Each structure stands twice: as C-alpha cells, then as structure tokens.
Amino acid sequence: MNKIKKCMADLGQFLDRTAGVISDEGIIVGSTNAEMLDVEDTNVSTIFSSDEPIIKTGNKSYKIIEINGYGSLVVYVEGTDNVAVTYLELITCCLEANLRESNDFQVKETFLKNVLLENELPGDISLKSREFDVSYSTPRLVLVLKNQTGDSLRLVSSLHRIFADSNSDYVLPLDENTVVILLDASESSDISTYEEAAKKILTQLLTDDLISARIGIGLIADTLKDTAKSYREASLALTVGNIFEPSSYLMRYDRLGLGRLIYQLPPTLCQMFLQEVFKPGAYEALDRETLTTIYKFFENNLNGSETSRQLFVHRNTLVYRLDKVQKITGLDLRNFDDAVLFKLASMVRRYLERRDSLKLNEPDHWW
C-alpha cells in the first residue's frame, strides 16, 4: 500500500480538497491529509452494496476501482458537487495508471528472476521477453551482490539510485541479503569494463555506509536465456572468493584460479592430499609469526631480500624461520616444487575448514 500512500501524498500538493483511498476493510490507506491515514470509514459497506458508478453520501463522493494485486479499493473526495466528481475521476485515472505500472514492473521483475533461477522453460523465454518488453538478444552480464549487514532496503534503494537513468539494466532483489544486477553488456565484450562498473557500485555503497557488500561477476551471456549460467558463475565467484579471498570485495568468475579447481574437488580427495603433504600435527605446529612469514614469502615470489625488508627482519632471521618450516613439515619453501606443494595444501586445508563453517553443499562439477 506504500504506492497508494505516496501517490495520494503527491496529489495533495495540487488538490484543494481532502481525498483518499479506502481498503475493502474500510481503512483509509492513502490520503492527501496525513492525519486521516488508518482511520476507519463507516460508509464502505454501503458503497460496496451500491450499483451506482459514483456514490454520494454524507459530504463525500465515492468510487470503487479494481486493480490486479490490490483488489477492490474505494476512492473518495470531500464534496458532492460536480467539482468533486471531476476530482474523483482524475484521481481514479492517476491511481490506476500508477498502480498498473507498478504491477507491470513487478511482473517483469518476477519473470527475470525466474529466468535467472531457471524456473522458466527455455522455449518460453524469447516469447515472454517480447511480452514484457525485455530484449532477448542483448548480451548481458550478472553481478551478484551479497550484503552482510541485513539492511536490504537501504541496499536496494542505493542500487536503484545508481541505475535510475538506465532502461536496460535491472536491479533484482532475491532475498534479504542477495541482490542481482543484470547489466546490459552490449557496450563491450571486455569483462574489465564491467569490473570497473562494479568498483564504482562498491564505492557508492561505501559512501552509503554499506561497506560489507561483496560482488561476484559472471561471464557475458549472449542472450537472456543464457543469463542463468552467468548468475551461477557470479554466485560461484562469491562462494569461492569468500573461502580463499575473504578480504576481497570483488570476485570475477574468470579469475578464480586455483580456488575454483580446489572447490570442485571431492572432500575425501582433499583429505587424502593433505595427509600426503603434511604429517599429522605438522601444519598445526606452525605459529602465527611463521605462517605470516610464509605467506609474505609467497607474495614476494620467493624473494628473500624483499620479504625480509617488508617484515622488517634481518635476512638471517628469515632463513631461520624457513629452516624451521622445513624441519616441521619436511618442505623447503626456497625450492619451487615444495613451495607450490605447500601453497596448494594450505589452500585445500582452508577450503575444508571453511566448508563446514559456511555450510557449503557439494559443489557442482562444471567441467
């Protein structure tokens, strides 16, 4: 009923008489006079029992309207003269146009959500896209945005403001924490273009204090039917990114690297691999300082001098720590093959740890 309330509030700026809308329960749900909201109108039963197009009773004129999604509503205007009747007709036309437009958008939004969730028959999508005035052949790309604050209304409101001037991009709320942005990708076939657009979205959300938002980016879909695949890709990018890059706010499906490979391995195979690489309790024996040194060593491509400089330690200290890792795990991280093995094993271990905490299902195998 918020649409009705807003429409009547807007009309109140132009009308010189009090007017409003009454629900079939007799409660005023929209009025040019805010003090009348939620007040009961006792004339409703009489109005619904009448066959007249315009009902005049007391000092008001009434008219019944039927709108899909809203049921039976009664519009009223103070006064019973010709001016009141004219106002009644104008308000009715205005309400019907606004609410019908709102209903049409909701139906279109539902259709697009069903396409993404694969709830539409593939053969029906092209036909329904013409019915809802959505281009079927326009290339599109899906962004899946997760908001961890739970303030979904603010999030959707911010996104609608960002895309207010676009007629070909769609903001589709899926649940209280998930919003899908369906982008028109006809401008460029380079995903980096849309990565920049995603960064701008994150910057705007940061301005709006929605800093916990994270975005997954799928691949470009050639047709509307293929956007379901782009949606799955963007969702997978978010899931894998949350495991292997929890500090990142932007994840691209085409840049998941080893994370995508590990995520698609069966957990039993992962366990077997870990048992081969690490002796029981070996990884757990590495303290936080040592692990920090290892990851910094990897970040600098096994460059000891640069790692020592960034950690503010003497090179001999770094050598001592790497010797300590070799003694505990049997892997010499200065050796490329051992470094790769340790890196893979640590990622597999992180996947298994996060898998239970994130309550992940068995991953789909997309190869």
Strand content: 5-15%
What's the mean pLDDT score? 87
Termini separation: 48 Å
Please tally the helical runs, counting DSSP H or I stretches of 4 or more residues: 13
Query: Under the CATH scheme, which architecture of the largest domain would be assigned?
Result: 2-Layer Sandwich
Q: In the CATH hierarchy, what is the class of the largest domain? A: Alpha Beta
**Overall shape:** elongated
Number of domains: 3
List low-pLDDT spans: none
Q: Kindly report the spatial arrangement of strands forming the biggest sheet.
A: 2-1-5-4-3
User: Helix-strand pattern, N to C?
Assistant: HEEHEEEHHEHEEHEHEHHHHHH
- Helical proportion? 40-55%
Q: Which structural class should the secondary elements be placed in? A: alpha+beta
CATH topology name of the largest domain = Alpha-Beta Plaits
Number of strands: 10
**What profile does the largest beta sheet have?**
5 strands, antiparallel
Radius of gyration, CA atoms, in whole angstroms: 30 Å
Topology:
Elements (H helix, E strand, L loop, with lengths): L1 H10 L7 E4 L5 E4 L12 H5 L6 E3 L2 E8 L3 E8 L3 H35 L5 H10 L8 E7 L5 H11 L7 E4 L4 E7 L6 H17 L6 E4 L9 H18 L5 E3 L5 H6 L3 H11 L10 H12 L4 H8 L3 H15 L6 H22 L10
Helix pairs in contact: 1-3, 9-13, 10-11, 11-12
